[in-house]
Amino acid sequence: MSAPVHIRAVEKTFEGAKRASTRILNEVTLTAPAGQITTILGESGCGKTTLLRIVAGLESATGGSVHIGERDVTSVHPSRRGVAMVFQNYGLYPAKTVGKNIEFPLKMAGVPIAQRHTRSLAAARLLHIDHVMDRLPAQLSGGQRQRVGIARALARDPEILLMDEPLSNLDAQLRIEMRAELVAMQRRIGSTMLYVTHDQTEAMTMSDRVVVMRGGHIEQQGTPEEVFRVPETTYVAAFLGNMNLAPAPASETGAGAGITLGVRPEHFLPADRVAAEPGDLRIEGRVEFAELLGTDRILHLRAGNTLWRARVDAALPLHEEITMVARAANLHRFDTESGVRVAA
Amino acid sequence: MSTRTARLTPHLLLAPATICLVLFVAAPLVIVLVLAFFNLNLVTGTSSFVGGTNFATEIPHPEFARALRNTLLYAVFTIGPSMVGGLLVALLIHGLRRGQGFWRSLYFLPVATTLVAMSSVWRWMFRADTGVVDTVIAPILGIHDWLSDPNLALAAITVVGNWHQIGLVAILYLAALGTLPQDQYDSASLDGAGGWNRFWHVTWPALGPTTIFVFIMTAGSALQAYDVIAAMTQGGPLGSTETLTFAIWNRGVHYFDIGRAAVLSLALLVLSVAVTAIQRTGYARRLENGGSR
């Protein structure tokens, strides 16, 4: 059971003191396809959590509409939208046992007690927490607490699962495990998932679709591959994969002034291994700093006024001066003023 | 030397607190207990051991049962209503979008005033026939002159007690309401909990420790109620507002009967211990842990 979520021209302004109002969301339109994971990615303060809370009904939109399937839910109470939400801080009831926490939405919905038990136990089994049903949230680890939060969300078979940075409070190793587990869980139950995060790795690894937000509007949306391969703006290029961005040297690119050149660090190749062809970018730089990541090394190369980051094999011998080449096909061009991609 | 110092240090550090405890808590308790078995003549300064005589005279005396009954009645009708009322006031003020500060100050005013001074204002309000209470309530309920009526005097005292207490309870609950976690309300809202369920499943458990604290506070001041009674009724009419505390004062200071006053004090002590016992058991215990787990 799943349905798509259509967010249409949603706006949100907060009335501040002295009639000053702050615009949090600006004409946000997006569709989360049924049965898929859509990630809303952005830095803190970009409005992604507010957007999710509007979909949940915890916050009201100043303008626009939210549809779940064919149903306009813009002014429907949160509990009648068929959505469930998982919170960054878990949002568990501290005075209730794990079992009672998971059962709570069913109890509120008036589900008979026997059925309540079976369904909450099934949800707990799915999240591997059926052995801690009688404990209180305070007696659990952070990872277990979030599993309880997710199990509670699953207990009532929601059409839509909303996740607000569910893994942010967990430590690194657990986060990686939970990432894979969450995707597997979503595939099994098949509900539509809207997932808010500031972590680009989570967005890339988990999503069917990524929506990059910035300052209250959508910067770009598409599959993770599309967004990564063809970033529409310099912001997306830098945010996802940390692309090098520098004013284009006119001689190298043939383009005029006002163009920003983008190269991913891993697209630099040592010049002594590949021959530069016409259209390629050739950088002769001095190594200012080198970060060893294990198998790779990030070189910070100073060439003129620009500092380039190049990701090279750690085995590559380090010289003070290094010449790198980036293939023409791997170069991205953006309008410097607007930051928007320019067709090559 | 060094091991001895090590052994002594904790005792030395504890000494100031220990001395204070012994001097101001343990010693008076022991003195009261001892006095209950003596007949003390304050004029001649002589005393004689009388065994259980003080208990034998005081306990069957109507004064004892009456004071006990009045104390319990006053406690029941101030602790419950002021806790419920204070919580309601706090919830209402907390729900306001503006003017919270004004209402908070308004409800706190009775706490900040001198109770004895306010009691004389209340006495004026309860004055027979011409007082505010009689002019408003008498035509409707047909009851008047509360302070002279043995059946109504304690009720009048209770009204003043509640008036004084509700503000304090409301302030304590308001402080607690300000710290409640928003995410639980968000999940409760999504889980389909309405107003009552949000209160019962989120707010009430989170307020648990405050509720226990408020109970101890209100119970303590209810058992020791003295100033309102002294200022408004002097324990009358016909002893109908004489509580244990007032009886202790009456016996000890008015009649110089220290032995019997000590017996009454012990009765109050037993009552206080009983209240403390309630607070350490069952549901109260769960409430107290409610916010922390």
Count every beta strand of chain A, where a strand is a DSSP E run of 2 or more residues.
18
Stated plainly, the CATH topology of the largest domain in chain B is called: MetI-like fold
Give the overall average pLDDT of chain B: 84
Head-to-tail CA distance between termini of chain A: 44 Å
Query: What pair of chains forms the biggest interface?
Result: A-B, 28 and 21 residues
User: Over all CA atoms, what is the radius of gyration of chain A?
Assistant: 24 Å
Largest sheet of chain B: 2 strands, antiparallel
Query: Helix tally of chain B?
Result: 13
The succession of helices and strands of chain A, N to C, reads: EEEHEEEHHHEHEHEEHHEHEEEEEEE
Q: What low-confidence regions of chain B span 5 or more consecutive residues with pLDDT below 50?
A: none
Contiguous low-pLDDT stretches of chain A (5 residues minimum) are none
Output the structural class of chain B: mainly alpha
Structural class of chain A: alpha+beta
Instruction: Give the CATH class of the largest domain in chain B.
Output: Mainly Alpha
| Tally of domains of chain B | 2
Question: How would you describe this structure to a colleague?
Answer:
The complex is a heterodimer of chains A (344) and B (293). By secondary structure, chain A is an alpha+beta fold. Chain A folds into two domains: 228 residues, Rossmann fold, CATH 3.40.50; 94 residues, Nucleic acid-binding proteins (OB fold (Dihydrolipoamide Acetyltransferase, E2P), Beta Barrel). Chain A is 26% helix and 33% strand. A six-stranded mixed β-sheet of chain A has the order 6-7-8-3-9-10, with helices on both faces. A five-stranded antiparallel β-sheet of chain A has the order 13-17-14-15-16, with no helix packed on it. In chain A, a hairpin with a 5-residue loop joins strand 1 and strand 2. The two termini of chain A are 44 Å apart. Chain B is mainly alpha-helical. Chain B has two domains: 48 residues, no CATH class; 237 residues, Orthogonal Bundle (MetI-like fold). Chain B contains 13 helices and two strands; from the N terminus they run αββαααααααααααα. In chain B, helix 3 packs antiparallel against helix 4, helix 8 packs across helix 9 and helix 9 crosses helix 13. Chain B is flat and about 75 Å long. Chains A and B meet through strand 6 and helix 2 of A and helix 8 and helix 9 of B.
